[in-house]
Design goal:
The complex is a heterotrimer of chains A (349), B (420) and C (293). Chain B is of the alpha/beta class and 420 residues long. Chain B has helices at residues 2-25, 65-84, 109-121, 133-146, 177-190, 205-218, 239-246, 260-272, 288-295, 321-332, 343-360, 367-374; strands at 51-58, 88-89, 95-104, 126-128, 150-153, 170-172, 195-202, 223-231, 252-256, 278-280, 303-307, 378-380, 391-392, 405-409, 414-416. The longest helix of chain B has 24 residues, at 2-25. Chain B starts with a helix and ends with a strand. The termini of chain C are far apart. In chain C, 72% of the residues lie in helices and 3% in strands. Chain C has a two-stranded antiparallel sheet with strand order 1-2. Classes of the chains: A mainly alpha (349), B alpha/beta (420), C mainly alpha (293).
């Protein structure tokens, strides 16, 4: 117990210090790394935001959503339209959040009474129907040829290359979105999400409306998804109906669970996974990417059912188990209840 | 509380390690450049005195992976076979071997862009032959901004060939969809009689390109379009559309369907409704063995298709030396990438020869010199192209192949058309 | 009039394809309480086995039998080796594990057989019947007949056999089933096995029209899921009826409503599904599940 107390005290100062180190590294990174690395990290930031949104609704509020790609798509289209029509950047960004947020809210108003698979099917309708709708609205969206925009070039007063400037813009916006969301899910709203996720009847008895809470979670998720659409366009500089495809939604759900459901760091780790695994599979054998990424996905889930974010816990758990086994052959059940890790594991050892 | 705090600190450490790893791997900001020993001009990335490195990103998994894999397999077959003979002779007198780096984008524009950047970062000399309109459209502005050749694309959308002033580093290989559609229109107009047409096209640039070409060709003639329908490539069946079009009882059905099972569905459905029009098929879904025979195409009075390449499996070409060379090379190299055939395999094989032709007149090891050579090929008879079809890259608003022969199905293979 | 009937008949034929896969989804849900995204991929792999038998010169019926046997074993083995790890844990993780299986199994099929669609022989003759100006292919009739037979068999299995009751009990509440002496783990394996075997039947039935390829059922799976949900996840009858409903409504909307057209016709069944679910969350034929606190 004393050791834990020391660790707790250490955590108090080490976490801000760590955050500072990470921030400094993130600021310095683009100055020294190649354009390709900058591009990859920027892409991770884009999908980290998309996964964060998904995490709000699935991880924190426990409501399945297979529609996240639609919000990225809408956000990207709004950004593209705004840029080509010379709207101020800030206004464009706000609309990128607002419009998907409104769409998400409207869908949630109808669907939030559903649960489980019924909810999943209603949300998957968004990308399924959104793709042909995007083709239909070709005056705005460029139809199936898509929308190419060249924007966010570094202003003349900064001595930065394209990739560095885009990195800073995207990572800065992503950081702000992360901070805001983090505060939100750690506060009253986050608590109501958790209660609704765990038990709606309890929520009702506490005066929390599950329906309104779910609508709020969906609205937040789609707003954040829209923001990531803005960032997507900043990085890819192109969007087409394929951006909305439901395959992307499914891959995002995979990346969210792989990263760690209901965890801020999990969203970041999920994005790293989302961006790096195709690269890795391509390096191994580009004509077997599906086989490799499927195998890799299952492997990670087998070892870490709680996602990548549970890796440190998992390592520690294995270490203590080994240590304990060598010290005392009998288990100590009292201690195990203190670590809630095993429940996400789904099995008792 | 402690059990919550603790892992978070550790996950922070994980993030820290990740960032540090990236920093280390990111090495240095300086652009790596390999100076050439040849002297006159500094060599572009990806080319040395003995090697040149090419890259391609196509869909190698997912629904479009059939054609996508073929754009890699055919090209790789030609290049590797040529390497085995010693390599390609360049205009500067050197002989170089070609390596082809290929990646899978699963038809996702964002992945295609990431792949393109990855290939450029690895130091490819040029990006060649990639399949897919949205994927190539996403890559095009970046390629032109970075001045990396994005050439001989296996995508028939006009935008890759229309405006070479705006996109000097991009070029298409296969005839545009408009070219194919126009060829059909012209055949009907030349018949000089009233003909009614029904059209079924894919709801994207592929379908609209076809329709645009066709419609501009029949403008002011006796050819009339009675009814048109569209479909989505993800549709399970197009029976409803065919039923709808059959009600028009048109003389001709233009079926610009790019999905093999759906095209077979069109052929089976129309005849099962008792509607037997003359049928026009696009070049990518008109392989006798995989489309026409399963679809029972012999029931129709005539089935036409535009063609510019030989079908290697066709008995008519069994003794053709090009086809024999292709079959040998594909068996040895391409079959590692795909085991199924689409016409894209033959097309990308021919594209390898076009690259070789461009290399042969390229006097400096630079991307600029490559583009100049590539843009000045004319009258080149690439292997597997039909007699009378030659490569001409000098036209400012056309793909490298911009003529097609209309051919007619004779129950086993294709034969030249004499007229409607 | 015959045009209208023809559209309905076409829609029913397409709907049978959705219904076939939806049945497998219902079966796995009914017997394990899970949603299995890899259902389509497992069906495709089994169908490829049938394809291999036919390629080797065997008759298609033998291919079907081998494919079903392969499917049953594959489903049971995957349940034991992969899915078991995630049962009883976070349901999202379990769903993602089945997505992992989907990607892996299609990847394996792609590595062996490549991606371009191949023609597949039909169990039924390639002929068309003309009934008063309406044309129906024998293949569609045969597919529908098999589908209805399988549906009735499933309905009987769950309603009238001890095995079916035991499987339902395990799906509803594995804990108390174990306490009352049911062999839970064997029943779960059996549930996955039967569902994958049924998937093989569905695959062999629809492959002549869709052509066999690793991605053959990727998009159909979306329709099939919609059909399963719309019909009520626990009702075989509901899955089939909803499959037909989707096929017909889609066709009619595409042909008659100009604003919708062929590109947006997919929106109609989804809109209908949303309306039905909002009014009746358990689906058209599903039983209401009581949420206990």
């Amino acid at each position: 117990m004393a050791g834990a107390l020391v660790r707790l005290r250490a955590a108090r100062w080490s976490r801000p210090a760590l955050a500072l180190v990470v921030a400094v590294l993130l600021v310095l990174l683009p100055l020294v790394s190649s354009p390709y690395v900058n591009y990859q990290v920027t892409t991770m930031a884009v999908f980290a935001v998309a996964l964060l949104g998904l995490n709000v609704v699935m991880g924190y509020a426990g409501q399945v959503s297979l529609g996240q790609s639609a919000f990225i798509g809408i956000g990207a289209y709004v950004a593209g339209y705004g840029t080509t029509h010379g709207w101020p950047l800030l206004l464009t960004f706000l609309l990128c959040c607002l419009l998907p947020g409104v769409v998400g809210m409207l869908v949630a108003l109808a669907a939030a009474r559903l649960r489980g698979l019924a909810l999943a099917m209603v949300t998957i309708a968004l990308p399924i129907v959104g793709t042909p709708v995007a083709k239909r609205l070709s005056d705005v969206t460029g139809g199936s040829q898509g929308l190419t925009v060249s924007w966010l070039d570094p202003p003349s007063w900064v001595a930065l290359a394209d990739d560095q400037w885009r990195y800073y813009v995207v990572v800065a916006i992503a950081a702000v979105v992360f901070l805001l969301t983090r505060n939100l899910v750690r506060g009253r709203v986050g608590r109501s999400f958790a209660i609704v996720r765990d038990n709606e009847a309890v929520a009702l008895s506490m005066g929390i409306s599950p329906y309104r809470t779910k609508v709020l979670a969906f609205t937040l998720a789609s707003t954040i998804g829209g923001a990531s659409g803005f960032l997507y366009l900043a990085v890819v500089q192109y969007t087409s109906p394929e951006t909305l495809s439901f395959g992307t939604s499914i891959n995002l759900v995979v990346a969210m669970v792989i990263g760690g459901s209901g965890s801020i760091a999990g969203a970041v780790l999920g994005a790293v996974y989302y961006v790096l695994v195709p690269v890795l599979a391509g390096q191994l054998d580009a004509s077997r990417t599906a086989l490799l990424s499927g195998a890799f996905l299952l492997l990670v889930l087998f070892v870490l059912p709680g996602g990548l974010v549970s890796l440190p816990r998992r390592v520690q758990q294995l270490l203590t188990r080994r240590r304990r086994r060598s010290a005392t052959p009998s288990d100590d059940p009292g201690d195990r209840t203190g670590t809630p890790v095993l429940t996400s594991d789904g099995r008792t050892p | 509380m402690k059990s919550v705090q603790h892992p978070r600190r550790l996950s922070g450490a994980v993030a820290l390690i990740g960032v540090t790893a990236l920093l280390v791997s990111g090495c240095t900001r300086e652009e790596a450049s390999t100076p050439s020993s040849s002297g006159t001009a500094e060599a572009s990335p990806g080319i040395t005195d003995t090697t040149v490195s090419l890259g391609i990103s196509s869909p190698l998994s997912g629904a479009t992976a059939g054609p996508g894999s073929c754009t890699v397999a055919g090209l790789d077959s030609f290049l590797e076979a040529k390497n085995a003979e010693g390599g390609f002779t360049f205009g500067d007198g050197k002989t170089r071997k070609v390596t082809l780096e290929y990646l899978d984008d699963a038809y996702d524009p964002a992945k295609a862009v990431a792949n393109f950047r990855q290939l450029v970062n690895k130091g490819i000399f040029a990006y060649v032959g990639a399949l897919g309109t949205p994927t190539n459209a996403a890559v095009m502005p970046i390629a032109n901004q970075q001045e990396v050749p994005q050439v001989l694309l296996t995508a028939g959308a006009g935008e890759f060939s229309d405006d070479q002033q705006a996109n000097p580093w991009t070029s298409g290989f296969v005839p545009t969809y408009t070219t194919e559609g126009a060829a059909f229109g012209k055949l009907l107009v030349d018949a000089n009689q009233p003909i009614t047409v029904a059209t079924l096209v894919q709801n994207d640039d592929y379908g609209t390109g076809y329709l645009d070409g066709f419609q501009s060709a029949i403008e002011g003639s006796q050819v009339k379009v009675l009814d048109s329908a569209t479909y989505e490539p993800t549709d399970t069946s197009v029976d409803g559309q065919v039923t709808q079009l059959a009600a028009s009882k048109a003389d001709v059905l233009l079926s610009a369907v790019s999905v093999t099972p759906l095209q077979v569905g069109v052929l089976t459905k129309a005849q099962s409704l008792g509607w037997k029009p003359r049928i026009f098929l696009p070049s990518n879904t008109s392989t006798p063995a995989t489309v026409l025979q399963p679809g029972g195409a012999a029931a129709y009075p005539d089935v036409y298709t535009p063609s510019f390449a030989k079908t290697p499996a066709s008995p008519a070409f069994a003794n053709d030396p090009d086809v024999q060379a292709y079959n040998t090379a594909f068996e040895q190299y391409g079959s590692k990438i795909t085991k199924t055939y689409t016409p894209h395999c033959a097309w990308s094989y021919a594209e390898g020869a076009v690259l070789g032709e461009a290399f042969s007149t390229m006097e400096e090891p630079t991307r600029e010199a490559f583009m100049t050579s590539l843009r000045s090929i004319s009258g080149f008879q690439a292997p597997l192209l039909l007699d009378g079809i030659t490569i001409d890259t000098t036209k400012e608003d056309q793909a490298a192949v911009f003529t097609v022969n209309l051919v007619r199905y004779n129950g086993t293979g294709y034969e030249p058309v004499q007229g409607y | 009039m015959s045009y209208f009937v023809q559209l309905v008949v076409d829609g029913l034929a397409t709907g049978s394809i959705y219904g076939a896969l939806a049945l497998a989804i219902v079966l796995v849900n009914r017997s394990t309480g899970m949603i299995n995204f890899s259902q389509g991929a497992l069906a495709v792999l089994s169908t490829f086995v049938a394809y291999a038998v036919v390629q080797a010169g065997g008759p298609l019926l033998l291919g079907l039998v081998v494919a079903v046997a392969f499917g049953v074993v594959l489903g049971a083995v995957l349940e034991r080796l992969v899915v078991r790890r995630f049962e009883g844990g976070d349901p999202n993780t379990a769903v993602v594990a089945t997505i992992g299986l989907l990607v892996l199994v299609s990847g394996i099929a792609g590595a062996i057989w490549s991606y371009d669609p191949r023609a597949f022989p039909s169990l039924f003759p390639n002929e068309t019947l003309a009934l008063g100006g309406v044309f129906v292919s024998v293949r569609s009739l045969g597919t529908t007949a098999v589908l209805v037979a399988v549906m009735v068999a499933l309905q009987l299995l769950f309603r009238a056999t001890k095995l079916g009751l035991a499987m339902r009990a395990v799906a509803d509440n594995p804990g108390s089933s174990a306490l009352s002496g049911l062999p839970v783990s064997r029943l779960l394996m059996l549930g996955w096995g039967i569902a994958a075997g049924l998937g093989a039947v569905a695959g062999v039935l629809v492959a002549p029209q869709l052509f066999i390829s690793p991605t053959m059922l990727d998009f159909t799976l979306v329709y099939a899921l919609a059909a399963a949900i719309l019909g009520g996840l626990d009702s075989p009858l509901g899955a089939v009826v909803a499959g037909w409903f989707i096929g017909v409504v889609e066709n009619l909307a595409g042909a008659y409503v100009d604003v919708i057209g062929n590109d947006l016709k997919i929106a109609v069944p989804f809109a209908a599904m949303i309306v039905v679910l909002v009014l009746r969350p358990q689906g058209l034929f599903g039983r209401r599940t009581v949420v206990r606190v």
